[in-house]
Amino acid sequence: MFNGLNKKEWEEAIAGQNEHLRGKYGYEIDTSEINADAMNQKAHEAAEFMSFMAASLKNGVSVNDKNVSDAIEKHIKFMQQDMSIDANGFAAQTRFLMTDDFHRQMIEGQQTGLSYYICFAAEAYAAG
Predict the structure, then answer these.
(1) Which residues form the TipAS antibiotic-recognition domain (predicted)?
(2) Alpha helices, DSSP H only, in 59-110?
């Protein structure tokens, strides 16, 4: 169970990702305004989503299954609380995560094939 991190722990947790983003894309996540409670809430929701998607992949559930679509819809709605994203934007984000070595390895570390499964599920959801 994820108990959450404090501000300093979040800064440390993001450091590797920031180094990758800075080196490959010239982008950096601003860690000066980290709200640990908000980050913990996002991490908890993301962990639930990833766990559900990993189980769906492992159990051979189709990316077109209603439960998968419902999970994606719920995840997008959660993300919309503080960012402008729709189904197409989420599909594009998952494609980026699948093709970027750092992020793909992070996702694939949870379940082999997971980055591809999430990407194809997001694209199927966006296609309607």
Answers:
(1) 31-125
(2) 66-79, 87-99, 101-108
